[in-house]
Amino acid sequence: MWTGMMSIFSKSNLEKIQAEEARKKDHAVLIVDDEEDNLITLADLLRDDYHIITAPNAIDALATLRGLKDPESVHLVIADQRMPRMTGVEFLAETLAIIPRSRRIILTGFSDVNAVIDSINIAHIYKFAMKPYNPEDMRLTVQRALEAFELEEVNDRLLQELKNMNADLESTVAQQTQELRSKHDALVTINRDKDEFLGIVAHDLKNPLFAIKSFADLIVSDFNDQPHDRIPEYAGVIAKSSERMFKLIEDLLDVNAIESGSLNLGYERITLEPIIDNVLQDFSTLAAAKGISLVFDRCSEHYAINADIGLVRQVIENVISNAVKYSPHHTTVNIHNQVVDRRVVFEVADAGPGFSDEDRKRLFEKFARLSAEPTGGESSNGLGLYIVRKLVDMLGGAVTCRDGDSGGTVFEVTWPLSDEKDEVNRARLKSLVE
């Protein structure tokens, strides 16, 4: 017998009882009745299990509810039906706006069918209880009402968790779909670039290779039959074709280095004039062959930019090369360099045919084939301006293209000025670290 009693009061059973008691105490119950004895009796019946709030009429009960710091802590309202100034049904209907989730029980000592119907339709009553009530039945009714409240809260929480999980799933699916779309687009771009690359290899390398082979064969097979004064001519064709191939391969290697991030940048304070002078000297022979004048309006101000001199030269070279390549014979290419609003502005203006609206959309794209044709039979692989844009971006500058005032095209490249004080401070800091 003692063993049985000990099992009843075991630690686990005691913890369950305590948990149940704590759970019950989490509920607040508002009791409203204008008859004081009935109010006290019902409050005393439930006080051991729940937090009890009482009010002698509906008006005071509404004021009490609105005055609570957390009205929604009231999970159950029990109201008498027949009260002065406001009936129980009217009162419970008013509470819907304050505590919509709470359960409601109405008490009445009269069989009033209309009150029953109103209590269900208007006040969303959980239970219609008759007076006098059996205390144990009332305890059970209150317990069931609060269990229904808890069940609805659990269901709502689970539903919200389900909605959140569904939203997270939709977000994940959308994100993964976007990632797949991005990867697909990247693969499409890679495939397109591969096709473009193969097209360049098939066309831009095949033609010069054919020329090299043909003239080399003439020299080798018919050397004794060829006039010796023609040999330098053949060699010149071979050299020019080799130069075209070398330029293409050099551009492809540059693109690969840029896109793979393997370029090693060496920043220093530089001015553009010496670089521009050097590039113009390199292009003077080609420009003279087409009767093109290269006019350089150099900057009169003292300035410097912080950049990689090799990459800056490549940008200037590509822009000037593009102007000479597409300019008509016997025209002028104007090169300007000036300081405007703390930026160095390098401009190259030609008298070429300009670009169509469709050309401008693809101007700086890789392998872009534009409508304009070189005016001296030069080759074009569609990489020059793409490389310019990428290098200028890497150096913190900007490149744009616009129509010239008198026709032709103006390419403008800008770089931010280097702050000499910042450079001195940076050098000092570097020396201290080292």
Which key phrases capture this entry?
alpha/beta, 3 domains, Rossmann fold, disordered C terminus, Heat Shock Protein 90, single chain, Helix Hairpins, 56% helix, five-stranded parallel sheet, five-stranded mixed sheet, 434 residues
Structure description:
The protein is an alpha/beta fold. It folds into 3 domains: 2-133, 3-Layer(aba) Sandwich (Rossmann fold); 180-260, Orthogonal Bundle (Helix Hairpins), CATH 1.10.287.130; 267-423, Histidine kinase-like ATPase, C-terminal domain (Heat Shock Protein 90). Helix content is 56%, strand content 16%. It contains 13 helices and 12 strands. The chain has helices at residues 2-8, 11-25, 36-46, 58-67, 88-95, 113-121, 135-221, 231-260, 273-289, 309-326, 357-362, 384-394, 420-433, and strands spanning 28-32, 51-55, 74-80, 103-108, 127-130, 267-270, 293-297, 305-308, 332-340, 343-349, 398-403, 409-416. Strands 2-1-3-4-5 form a 5-stranded parallel sheet, with helices on both faces. Strand 4 (103-108), helix 6 (113-121) and strand 5 form a beta-alpha-beta unit. Helix 4 (58-67) packs parallel to helix 5, helix 7 packs antiparallel against helix 8 (231-260) and helix 8 (231-260) packs across helix 12 (384-394). The radius of gyration is 45 Å and the shape is rod-shaped. The two termini are 87 Å apart. Mean pLDDT is 82; it is low at 1-9 and 424-434.
